[in-house]
Specification:
By secondary structure, this protein is an all-beta fold. Strands 2, 4, 5, 6, 9, 10 and 11 form a 7-stranded mixed beta sheet that branches. β5 and β6 form a beta hairpin. The radius of gyration is 13 Å and the shape is globular.
Length: 115
């Protein structure tokens, strides 16, 4: 299993970013995909999840109405569209899949929201 995130960067408050995560080595379309984040000195937290067929999503309360998770199964890719970004969204964002009771993680992509 390999997960590769991209799309992070520095953005001003109120701005937008789109993160991507390309998966390989497993049947991508059969698995729920998740985005987590970890800010300095804090525990890793679940941001959003999307079911295998993409019909069901859920979000942390802190990002509801601002972030949208989506997936393109033919491309083996999951996305996180982040709008109205706040300084408190600053973190390393990780893509995740749970397969056969094992959590797999990407290398993470840094998102920094600052003026």
């Amino acid at each position: 299993v390999q997960l590769v995130e991209s799309g992070g960067g520095l953005v001003q408050p109120g701005g937008s970013l789109r993160l991507s995560c390309a998966g390989s080595g497993f049947p991508f379309s059969s698995y729920t995909m998740r985005w987590y984040r970890q800010a300095p000195g804090k525990e890793r937290e679940l941001v959003a999840a999307i079911a295998s067929a993409g019909g069901s999503t859920n979000y942390a309360d802190s990002v509801k109405g601002r972030f949208t998770i989506s997936r393109d199964n033919p491309k083996n890719t999951v996305y996180l569209q982040m709008n109205s970004l706040k300084p408190e969204d600053t973190a390393v964002y990780y893509c995740n899949v749970l397969r056969w009771s094992v959590n797999y993680w990407g290398q993470g992509t840094q998102v920094t929201v600052s003026s």
